[in-house]
Amino acid sequence: MDSLFGTRYHTVGAELQLPRKVPMRVEPKSFFANERTFLSWCSMATTMGGVSSAMVGLTFSRSGGTEGRVISARTVDMVSAVYVPLAILMVAYALFMYNSRSSFMRKKQVGFFDDTVGPITLAVITLITLVAITVMAFIDVVL
Fold first, then answer.
1. Which residues contact 9 (CB under 8 A, 6 or more apart)?
2. Is 134 exposed, middle or buried (0-12, 13-18, 19+ CB in 10 A)?
């Protein structure tokens, strides 16, 4: 019965909620919202991975000369080495959250569908990498 009604003894993190007497009603728009959020995260990760891959492709498209370059090839390699794993991390996070939220909805369990740690963590990691890339590019331009 606990798995059907999603009471506080079955759902992790629902200790503060009163037990339900009827199964939770999940509207179809909730599934679409979950999918839309997943696709948004995947879109951002694809953009980051695409930009880093394009930067690597553009640096190797020249004939090996360094004339006309403002940022060194080492900096571009560092950008791609940071952004490709970050994009993969974003897709993994999006897939994990999509699956967990969708399993809560399929089982009609009470669950906390908001996540305060994941997006903030990814935003801080992205901010740190952007600051590091900016500093590296500034060092390349000045020196």
1. 2
2. exposed
What does the pLDDT read at residue 99? 93
Report d(CA 112, CA 96) in Å as an integer.
15
Divide the 143 residues of the chain into consecutive groups of 10 and give the mean pLDDT of each group: 49 61 78 92 91 76 57 79 88 93 82 79 88 85 80
Residue 80 CA to residue 54 CA, distance in Å, equals: 9
Left (φ > 0), alpha (ψ -120 to 50) or beta: where does 90 sit?
Answer: alpha
Note the pLDDT of residue 69: 61
Q: What pLDDT sits at residue 8? A: 47
Sign of CA dihedral 95, 97, 103, 106: negative
Could you tell me the CA-to-CA distances from 78 to 67, 70, 82, 135, 140 in Å, in that order? 20, 15, 6, 12, 13
Give the span between the Cα atoms of 105 and 51, in whole angstroms.
Answer: 35
CB atoms under 10 Å from CB of 40, counted, come to 11
